[in-house]
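Chain X:
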Amino acid sequence: MAEQAQATDTGPRPIVPWLKLAPKPHLEGIKCACGAMYLDPKRVACSKCGEADKFKPVVLSDKGKVYVFSVVHQSYPGIKTPYVTAIVDLPEGISVRANLTDVDPAQAQKEPHKIFDLPVELVTGVAAKDREGHDVIAFSYRPTKN
């Protein structure tokens, strides 16, 4: 815990442990010796082979495709609605839940076929301030500009 608190004293901090901010923002997974991949860096055993402590960190792609999405119309007080949330499939075989930015919720509802399999890229932004006044960085995905 002291290690985590010390890290927040130096500046911006990621909102989840698998979001790394340097050298450029990216997600980091872990890969078991058997080849299974996971997003949770605190996993102690592989659900595929049962081995423990055979994981190595792996940098995940900043590109993916929308597998499924939902338009959220009701949320926690203070959260602007509607917004689009999705499951994004990454090329490494990991799926990530994240919000989609630069996607109009009304248009997504009218033309859902344009959102499924949509190529997206990872983006980061300030989500809040922590108790010490440092930026808390969150990630989302936006349509690629190709």
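Chain Y:
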Amino acid sequence: TTLGALAVGDALNVERAMRPTDRLGGHLVSGHVDGLGGVERIEPDARAQRWRFTAPTHLLRYIAKKGSICVDGVSLTVNEVDDAGFEVALIPHTVANTRFAHTQVGDAVNLEIDLVARYVERLLAGRAQQGE
């Protein structure tokens, strides 16, 4: 986790837990850090910014184009993914209202992969063990 590098008063993305009656407006996030990535590039993209992150090889298998990923506690949609990392588009509101306003190229970020991807892998592994 990158939390140890933060100083008192630094920004941090924290959201209240969803209630069972709330509408799910993003993807399921548990708050567990699966690994560290890095900010490789930030470029303007129309009225947004395109951010490229590096990710550990063992996590890239769970990251899919148009799928979800949590970066530093923020649920995001993946625009592109390859063998070294992935890209997302951040609108000005997201940048201004999250830790991304203070994040720069070269910074480390916490990554949480999509919870559904973990369950799919587990289910498929179980089927393979049963010979299905």
